[in-house]
Amino acid sequence: MIAVFAVVFTACQSDQAAEPLQEESKLSPEILAKLDAALFDTSTAFVTNFMGEDGVAVEDMFFSFEQINELEPADPLAKHYRTSNLVSKLPRAITISVDPDLGVLGSDALDETIQMYNDLGIRLTFTRVAFGQRGRNKADIEVTEFYELESGGFITLGRAAGFPSRKGDPARGFGINSRWFELSIAPNVSELAGTMAHEIGHCIGLRHTDYQTRESCGQNVNEGSAGVGAIYISGTPTGSDASSIMQSCGPAIDFNGNDITALEVIY
Fold first, then answer.
1. pLDDT score recorded for residue 91
2. Crossing angle, helix 103-118 and helix 189-203, to 10 degrees?
3. Under DSSP, is residue 58 helix (H, G, I), strand (E, B) or coil?
4. What was the pLDDT predicted at 220?
5. Distance of alpha carbon 98 from alpha carbon 63, whole angstroms
6. Where are the alpha helices (DSSP H) in the chain?
7. Would strands 61-64 and 92-98 be described as parallel, antiparallel, or unpaired?
8. Range of the domain at 155
9. Which segments within the chain are labelled E, that is strand?
10. Model pTM greater than 0.85?
């Protein structure tokens, strides 16, 4: 039951997968040093290609090699919850698309996620567009499909491709692990929408609410500022918030009051 519990409630915990690219030996000492200095747990980090770029999957995030070179040493005593960069040019409508490989479930979940955010009445709104377009028609955030096996009783449900850029654009997207759909604890629409809302939170600058401990994953690891900032959002708890949709490892499927406050403050 402990293993099943871990699999059910891992919102975006990062684990090893079995593909040839994903060998820690391919991580250079310089890359490992930068990730270690940013207080990431590199024990399960691996080199991979994600959303068309080569880089490293570490914990529940993916960073291109260019992004890793921009990481700065983290402050282990930081007590904050958003990144330094946020989406700018507000109010702003963000377009978002979903990979057809995620099926009807993925399509319905994205519609529910968009409604969740748009119901908040903040200065960010989301509009769905067709997947796979190019140039000016390409979605600001793309939801893609990836496949990764569970490891040690945990499964990576989603993985965000970084945080907002220095130019004030959201991260280019996130992936949903279709392996989750094959398990006995396969998600319903609301559960998948909750995971999508979590990953969109990263794309627009939200950090984990338990980033200081990752206690929702049964860990005691401080993610620190991770080189992208970890700034406290006024009006929210300074400690772990067990019902927040931004916990490191679920199981929230909707925003709680503190999530709403955080989003209202920054957007």
1. 97
2. 60
3. strand
4. 47
5. 21
6. 2-8, 29-37, 65-69, 103-118, 189-203, 257-266
7. unpaired
8. 1-267
9. 46-50, 53-58, 61-64, 92-98, 124-128, 141-146, 158-160, 173-177
10. no
* Residue 63 to residues 41, 99, 152, 161, Cα–Cα distance (Å): 14, 21, 23, 6
Q: Kindly report, residue by residue over 116-160, the tens digit of the pLDDT.
A: 999 999 999 999 999 999 999 999 999 999 999 987 778 889 998
Gyration radius from the chain CA atoms:
17
State the pairing for strand pair 92-98/124-128: parallel
CA atoms of 230 and 228, how far apart (whole Å): 7
Give the CATH number for residue 54. Answer: 3.40.390.10
Taken in order 133, 136, 141, 147, the sign of the CA dihedral is positive
Q: What residues contact 92, with CB distance under 8 A and at least 6 apart?
A: 123, 124, 125
Whole-number pLDDT of residue 9? 43
When divided into structural domains, the chain yields a total of 1
Find, among 55, 84, 85, 51, the residue nearest to 69 by Cα: 55
Tokens representing residue 233 in the block = 């959002």
- Determine the pLDDT at residue 111: 98
Edge-to-edge strand list for the sheet holding 158-160 = 46-50, 53-58, 61-64, 158-160, 173-177, 141-146, 92-98, 124-128
| SS3 state of residue 263 | helix
Residue ranges of the chain whose pLDDT lies below 50: 1-10, 13-25, 75-80, 220-228
Q: Is 102 exposed, middle or buried (0-12, 13-18, 19+ CB in 10 A)?
A: buried
The DSSP bridge partners found for residue 57 are 46, 62
Q: The tokens of 40 are what? A: 């990431």
Q: Which helix (H) or strand (E) is 250 found in, with range?
A: none
Output the pLDDT for position 212.
52
Count of beta carbons in the 10 Å neighbourhood of residue 114: 20
